[in-house]
Write a structure and sequence with these properties.
Elements lengths: L2 E6 L5 E3 L4 E4 L2 E6 L2 E8 L4 E5 L3 H4 L6 E2 L1 H4 L11 E14 L6 E14 L3 E11 L7 E5 L4 E6 L7
Antiparallel strand pairs: 1-4, 1-7, 2-3, 3-12, 4-5, 5-6, 8-9, 9-10, 10-11, 10-12
Length: about 160
């Protein structure tokens, strides 16, 4: 991985687990030698998707910011590291196919776990969760509409 960027639309995002986990709402863009791989909100699809383009090609509005504090923090350790293995989880969702509201089942990526050299991992998952006042998000479940969980060196259990 040559570089990455994390993007946010809303004013705030979550930093969890002693600053090794983040929940953002817009996307994460990876740059590799042969191009880009982005998990982010697609303006065309109106949900979070995976595309081999830069984030600004997926998201058409200009109301997002790059979260440089995440990039320059602990995640910076992944820049220049070789990915040794990647695992993916997909789930089926109903997708509207025309104006009559007909649907079809489509398989969508909901989680990617990257295993880097040096025994480091990066989990990226599309999630929703429960929020209780003055508590961290909990009861994570896969969801392609809400947010993106980024977890460094800890695999979060998701239902």
């Amino acid at each position: 991985m040559i570089d990455f960027n994390v993007f946010q639309v809303n004013d705030s995002y979550f930093v969890l687990n002693d600053k090794n986990q983040w929940i953002v709402d817009a996307g994460i863009e990876f740059q590799f030698y042969k191009g880009y791989f982005t998990i982010g909100f697609s303006s065309d699809l109106e949900h979070i998707s995976v595309q081999s383009v830069k984030f600004d090609k997926m998201y058409s509005d200009d109301n997002y910011v790059a979260l440089d504090d995440i990039k320059s923090g602990k995640l910076k350790a992944f820049i220049g590291k070789k990915i040794e293995e990647a695992t993916f989880k997909t789930l089926e969702f109903d997708e509207v196919i025309d104006y009559t509201m007909k649907t079809k089942k489509v398989s969508k990526l909901v989680e990617m776990i990257l295993h880097f050299e040096g025994n480091q991992t990066l989990q990226i998952a599309l999630v929703n969760y429960d929020l209780v006042e003055n508590e961290a998000p909990k009861n994570f479940r896969y969801n392609i509409i809400n947010d993106i969980l980024i977890s460094m060196n800890t695999i979060v259990k998701i239902n």
